[in-house]
Amino acid sequence: MSPEEQLQAFLGRVPYIRFLGMRAELAGDELTGILPFSPHLIGNSLLPALHGGVIGAFLEMTALAQLAVTQSTPRVHKTIDVTIEYLRPGRAMATYARAELRKVGRRIANVHVEAWQEARSQPVAALRGHFMLAED
Amino acid sequence: MSDPEPNPPNPNLEAAAAMATEVPQAAALGFQMVSAADARGVMHAPWREDLVGDPDTGVIASGVVTSLLDHCCGMAITATTGERRPTATLDLRIDYMRPAAARTGVTVEAHCYHLTRSIAFVRAHAWDADPADPIATAQAAFMLSPAPVPAPGGAA
Questions:
Q1: B17 CB near a chain A CB, below 8 Å?
Q2: Sorting pLDDT into bands at 50, 70 and 90, what band is B39?
Q3: pLDDT at B21
């Protein structure tokens, strides 16, 4: 499968990704996760702001999508741990995220992800996580 | 052994219960408040087909657990301060010990174990069947806004 086919296969087979409304685009082997705004993602109606859990989940799904593209297997990799830092409120608009595979070992990958909205230089949140790589 | 006094209406509990239903993301995930008292909150997310994270196993997505952990931590803070102040998550660390059982909902208990004027420190754990056998644990810090949220309709 091509990286694009692997990406679409991953996005298409996880029901929760459809619940979020998440998409992703590939430029070469670099993936950008895209989370269009939707009212059901709101965690604070007064601001309004995206739910912290939604931002964390979107970062994690971007890491898993990047792993699905570079670590080809029909199975879903498993999250071991994540640390999410919230830098700015996630506003009621589209959010983007890019993952960096810091280390991919035989069994475990370390991934950093950063999310932004209007400006790449003003991230709204960041995630560092470890993932157990699925075997074929 | 004397009978306990019947519980008076608890405004903390009402504020906490509202958190499970009024917030759009919580409503979309079907969160249900189980209890809120003494700096602790317990909240449940039922299993749903559209919330599955691994189609091979039918296990609920870790993203749902992330939202539930974050949200329940907020409820524990409400159960501590006694008022519904807006909170902003500073950081959230989650360890996933094991996958949840297939086609099973998740319950979280969060404990706000320390509160300053501006920061709340919260620990939480999530389980599917047995609270003593967690699927995930979490540690989080939250920033508290100075002003309580006004009640709907403007009543204090």
A1: no
A2: very high
A3: 77
d(CA B125, CA B110): 7
pLDDT exceeds 70 at position A1: yes
Is residue B24 within 8 Å of residue A41, measured between CB atoms?
yes
What residue ranges in chain B does DSSP mark as E strands? 32-37, 40-45, 52-54, 59-60, 87-96, 106-115, 119-127, 136-144
> Cis link prior to A89 (omega < 30° from 0)?
no
Residue B34 contacts A where some CB pair is shorter than 8 Å: no
Using the predicted structure, report yes or no on whether residue A108 has a pLDDT greater than 50: yes
The burial class, CB within 10 Å (0-12 / 13-18 / 19+), for B150 is exposed
Residues 81-100 of chain B whose Cβ lies under 8 A from any Cβ of chain A: 86, 88-96, 99
Assess whether pLDDT exceeds 50 at residue B156.
Answer: no
Distance CA B60, CA B96 (A): 13
Residue from B52, B62, B68, B137 whose CB has the most chain A CBs within 10 Å, to mutate? B62
**What are A2-25's pLDDT values in tens digits?**
889 999 999 999 999 999 999 999
**A86 to B91: CB separation less than 8 angstroms, yes or no:** yes
Q: Give ipTM to 2 decimals.
A: 0.94
Beta bridge partners of B140: B92, B122
Query: Which among B24, B68, B89 has CB closest to A39?
Result: B24
Within 13 Å of residue A112, how many CA atoms lie on the same side as its CB?
Answer: 6
CA dist A28 → A2, A3, A7, A25, A105 (Å)? 11, 8, 12, 10, 22
